[in-house]
Amino acid sequence: MRLIRLTANVLLILLLLMIHAGDVSADDLEGKKAPSFTLKTVDGERYTLESALAKGPVLLDFWATWCQPCKQALPPLAKIYETYRDQGYTMLAISVDNTRSVSKIRPYIRSQGFTFPVLLDTDSQVLRQYGGNNVPHTVLIAPDGTIKKVWIGYHPGEEKEIEAQVLTLLQPGGEESGQ
Amino acid sequence: MRKRPILAFLLASMLIAPLYAQGISIQGSNEMRWADGQETLGGQQQTKRYFENRLNTDFYYNRIRIGTRITMLQPSEFGETRFGPETLEKRFLEFSDPQNNYRMRVGDFTTTWGRGLTLALLEDVNQGFDSGLDGMLVAGESGPFEVEVLAGRSHGGWLGLVREAQISGGHLGVTLPAGFAAGGQALLVTPVPDVNSYRENRSYGGYLSFDGSAVSLWAEHAIEEVDGSGSDHDASYGSLSWYGGRVGIALDYKRYRYYRFTSGLSGAGSTYAQSVGTLPFHNAPVVQREFTSNLFSKHPHIVRFDDEVGVQLEVTYNPTNASTLVLSYSQSSQFVEREGWVPLLDEEESPFRELFLELTAYPAASWYMSAWTGYNEEVVFTNRRISWTRQVVAGAGSDIVLTPDWSLKSSAEGVRVEDVAVGDDYFDGLVVAGVTWRSRYTAAVTYEWTGQQNPPNDASQWVKVDMGAFIANRHELLVTIGQERGGLVCSSGKCRVVTPFDGVKVSLTTLF
After folding, report:
1. What b/e string do you get for B39-67 counting C-beta neighbours within 10 Å, with b at 16 or more?
2. A29 neighbors A60 (Cβ within 8 angstroms)
3. How many Cα atoms within 13 Å fall on the side-chain side of residue B507?
4. Chain A partners of B370 at a C-beta cutoff of 8 Å?
């Protein structure tokens, strides 16, 4: 009986995956439309993904004040942002701190001198929209609103790959490469 | 009775995708977790096997979003089995209009009002906790006003504990001039006949906040009325933040006396435990640092949401552009009997205090290091008996990018524990060493040992190997082989017992 149930459930999942497979590009997530969202910044202002995409490529970095790898990744990502922000590149640091730690976000960000926008996703709804269950979770989006690349977790040296991908999108014709 | 609509929803979701493939965008993830080995429970070794699979799918069509989560548990890590139509764990239909700032959702959702004193619906898959609602949510903004109304049936918190309730309530917030904002909310919780142990519960709350260029302030208070309870139940929370130059300071305050439905660690001795059984919809800030370091966090202070007053001060200082110093101090105690407003260190108040200092730095672009030290002590006063624990910890870690392809990770820490309850004074240690190749493949060895005279489960050392791979930009594979010590893990005030484990664990996450 247990085997039958297990088999039935596996078949159900496979069926759904087959349905999905028809819509998913053969290689990876590249080219899929990035789900739009509206979140509040730490300063209480509304911020939409579309407003950032209007300027150029966007990096979504999901993080939290209690997450050490996230805080390890922020300084190198901030450097990339400072280097290319004048060319239209935007980094959105989306905090998934919930009520337990939301009061720590602003003192931390301000003391570090980070200038990128910091958004609040206190119930992780946007993180889940982008397939994330844990942080850090990083997504690069081309100016045309399609996903260019996703990074799960943070590994030292990863920022070099992120910078190379950002440069690709900033080059003339780079928008097309995100499709 | 609930299976037919669920099946209909499942079939509709399956059919919609191919029919509208041209106009529908699909996004999702699949997470599989599997383990096979031995766990130690109550001093006895027993077989531990679990298989969990969660398939999350979001369908987007213009302003419409349909979300599903199909969860198969055969069984889960916590022993729950789910199969057949019950595998459709979550489903919702959402319509949103970002231009006009409103959204409506039917089905499963979570939300938070203010800082969660009155309502914070929380889902934490890792902890096996879910107090999300299955019902309807309408939210909108107009000018300075924001409003949210909801009604539904709760999943009831800890999975496996059948305690459902009917929830309804509303929140109104208003943005005031000069950086001020205020809000109020009301919540009604009514028992669902025959399935739960709740009493009717009414909660009301309000907050006032201020955001300035260098100062932020938040003050919130909630009142809880419970049928049949003559006592007062309320909760207060405040935070004051200041930031200037390279310094940021956050000072938090709590005073909680929520009604307690169950006492102590219900479920302790099983694979999971509930900290203190307050309503799962009240998730107020814990006002203490929950994760400090691997060893230090193994003896957490469990927040007594029914009787605790406390403060936390966290100072972040950035001495150079490449280094950060964080100092955290928290102190709490009981207060209900004396009706006090400040945490005391008197033994009769079961005080807890903790100091933790952490330094992180990039000495070079390819070298990240961290060092930490901390001290905490907790007194537990019950039935005129006093017992206490005291811990001192120190540790350091380093991540070095050796070549464009290879990086090296290492850390070591030690903690001295004085535990009067068991009459022991011992030293625990932990060493981790690992490598990463091309930021895609990782391998690490962890060795942990304890100097306890009579360690639980007769084990005094644990060795495990963790391996990870990020494949084809869409699959994350994690494999753990060896022994895990286990312990009590707390997140957002929800604590769960992780049993010692010896075997293999595999998790595979796929994005699509």
Report:
1. bbbeeeeeebebbbbbbbbbbbeeeebbb
2. no
3. 16
4. 68
Beta bridge partners of A38: A48
Sheet holding A58-63, edge to edge: A46-48, A38-41, A118-120, A90-95, A58-63, A137-141, A147-152
The pLDDT tens digits for B418-477 are 988 788 999 999 999 999 998 889 999 999 999 998 887 778 999 999 999 988 878 899
Distance CA B77, CA B393 (A): 31
What digits encode the pLDDT tens for the residues B316-362? Answer: 999 998 999 999 999 999 999 889 999 999 988 999 999 999 999 99
B368 neighbourhood in chain A, CB within 8 Å: 72, 156
Contact flag A157-B316 (C-beta cutoff 8 Å): no
From edge to edge, which strands make up the β-sheet containing B157-158? B123-124, B129-130, B157-158
Question: Please, what sign has the CA dihedral across residues A155, A160, A163, A165?
Answer: negative
Rounded Cα–Cα distance for residues B29 and A149 (Å): 15
B100 three-class SS: coil
Helix (H, G, I), strand (E, B) or coil at B288: coil
Nearest to B199 by CA among B262, B129, B284: B262
Question: Touching check for B215 and chain A: CB below 8 Å?
Answer: no
Tokens of B329: 């101090």
CB contact, 8 Å: B24 with chain A? yes
Q: Which domains does chain A carry? A: 27-177 (3.40.30.10)
Residue B458, sorted as left (phi over 0), alpha (psi -120 to 50) or beta, turns out to be left
Dist CA B93 CA B66 (whole Å): 5
C-alpha B453/C-alpha B484 separation (Å) is 19
Alpha carbons B481 and B469: distance in angstroms, whole number: 15
Residues facing residue B90 across a β-bridge: B69
- Give the pTM: 0.88
- Best mutation target among A10, A155, A162, A179 (most B Cβ atoms within 10 Å) is A155
Q: Which residues contact B186 (CB under 8 A, 6 or more apart)?
A: B118, B169, B170, B202, B203, B204, B205
Place of tokens 């007062």: B232
Structure tokens at A131: 């397939």
Under 8 Å CB pairs connecting chains A and B tally to: 207
For the stretch B62-108, pLDDT in tens is 889 999 999 999 998 888 888 877 789 899 999 998 778 899 999 99
**Cβ–Cβ under 8 Å, residues B342 and B309:** yes
Residues 430-459 of B with CB under 8 A from A: 436, 439-440, 442
Closest CA to B411 of B365, B371, B461: B371
Distance (Å, rounded) from C-alpha B120 to C-alpha B185? 12
